[in-house]
Design brief:
About 40% of the residues lie in helices and about 0% in strands. The relative contact order is 0.08.
């Protein structure tokens, strides 16, 4: 069997979709947008801040443990 032949059709479709989204010549390409993409209201910004604060119970570490 050749490489990639162990992928199911749904895995292949997901892979193709990811490739299309990363290809600037494809119509589904959206580009990379860095930074926080929340709604920007006070409650949303407070929640985002809490998730970044290690002293808060909502803290979410970005590293694996």
């Amino acid at each position: 069997m050749g490489q990639g032949s162990s992928l199911s059709s749904s895995d292949t479709a997901a892979n193709d979709n990811k490739s299309n989204q990363c290809n600037p010549n494809h119509s589904e390409y959206n580009g990379h947008q860095s930074g926080y993409k929340g709604t920007g209201d006070k409650a949303d910004l407070d929640n985002h801040s809490n998730q970044l604060n290690p002293n808060n119970s909502n803290y979410q570490s970005s590293g694996s443990k």
